[in-house]
Amino acid sequence: MIPVIKSPKDYQVYRISPDATNRLAIVFDRASADVSPIVCVEIFDVGGKQPPNRHQSAVEMFFILKGEGLAHCDGKTVPIQAGDSFLVPPTDIHFIENTGLGRLYALSIMVPNDHFAELIRSGIEVELDEEDLAVLRRTATPSLTD
What we know:
- By secondary structure, this protein is mainly beta.
- It contains three helices and ten strands, in the order E-E-H-E-E-E-E-E-E-E-H-E-H.
- The chain has a seven-stranded antiparallel beta sheet. A three-stranded antiparallel beta sheet has the order 6-5-8, with no helix packed on it.
- 29% of the residues are buried.
- The model has no long low-confidence stretch (mean pLDDT 93).
């Protein structure tokens, strides 16, 4: 297999629903790189959060790239910030919410895909803005919330 190299300008970005307060930028999945996990960057607007969700057979890991918030999993809540990771076992009901003053960025890896890529791609295609590109390229000026 030839290595697949992408930059943020190559990512496909979606909102799962019109009222979603988060966007998902697909980095790699079966459609783009013929791999079984899905890797994406999830971008939460200020005050944004996911709806509570669970995955039947997949393990999902979040690594917080920038921002701060709360991670909820099966009735437990913990604060999260840049550098923290959050592992969700299959069937656990979970969600992340942004409680910071700026956007929250999280790298998400789900193994196996468990139809998540298809759900994302069925949403509304949007684009990364300059702030998103600066964060993903690590050219953004660090702030006190990093």
